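User:
Note these tokens:
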Amino acid sequence: MVLTSRGEAIDFAGAHLYSRSTFDKVIMTADVILLLLGLGILTLGADVLVRGGSSLARHLGMTPLLVGLTVVAFGTSMPEMLVSVGGSLKGQDELALGNVVGSNIFNVGFILAIIALISPINIKYSVLKLDAPAVIVTALIAVVVAYSGLVSRFEGFLLLLLLFAYTFVNIRLARSEVKTEVISEFEEGIPKPTKSIWLDVALIFGGLILLMLGSHFLLGSATRIAQMLNISDAVIGLTIVAAGTSTPELATSVVAAIRKHSDIAIGNVIGSNVFNILGILGLSTIVKPLSLSNFSFGDFWVMVVFSIAILPLMWTSRKLCRWEGGLLLLGYILFVWSRWPNSA
């Protein structure tokens, strides 16, 4: 406390604390804006990439079904890919793992729940026979490779090999068993081809640039927010980052549900979960082995529980009803609520 010549008292310590608090709020606000900007750029980049890639594939003679199962499915997962691989390169193992695990939980607990609430989904036997079990098996594979506390490059290569095998089998089965109405769904569900292959190439490169820029903004801002809130990168990855990078899947699935395209809606969620484990986790660990030293192994089991929950819910009346969607959404809300306080 200091007295001025006019008898006014100035508390320099208090002024310092006030200015410090104000400065922190400004920095936090700026980082939140950057995080939202990064998520927006990632979503835009994925959309541009999918449009360019789908159009190029159509110009090269690929059928809409094949484009939907490959280009669109992988393209909508590119935000997760860029963020997890970027996190791996920067040594942010918790964020990279949290993004993969959190995205799978979000896909089931939020996206699948939302599309069921919009319109009850009829489940085809092929989903129960192959796709839903594939989600469960890949989730269990993630538990196995993470059990030692380090996911190695060798395990990453095995995961990628399994992804290629799964994609090959899926395409073969789709070609042999697909029905006319499913083909028409994919015709409507994928972007229309452009007039020029060179425009397709430009869109692909533009989409990749946007994805890299968005992931750069997101990784930096998410890390600073975690530090300022005194929570771990894992929790940020499991919640905010995972939900944000899953926005393309959410948008695609919601549009498909509104149009009553159940095959695309379900296939998008299931395909994304399989790709997240086999493709994104696999490639991230090839770039650099990922350590679980600061990551809760229990979150892998939460992912397994959500994955297993799909099967009995879908099996009842071969339909995912609104109340079942509400149950999944409640489970996701409880998961997010439980993770934040434990990490603060």
Notes: Strands lie at 2-3, 9-10, 121-122, 150-151, 290-291, 319-320. The CA atoms of residues 107 and 269 lie 6 Å apart.
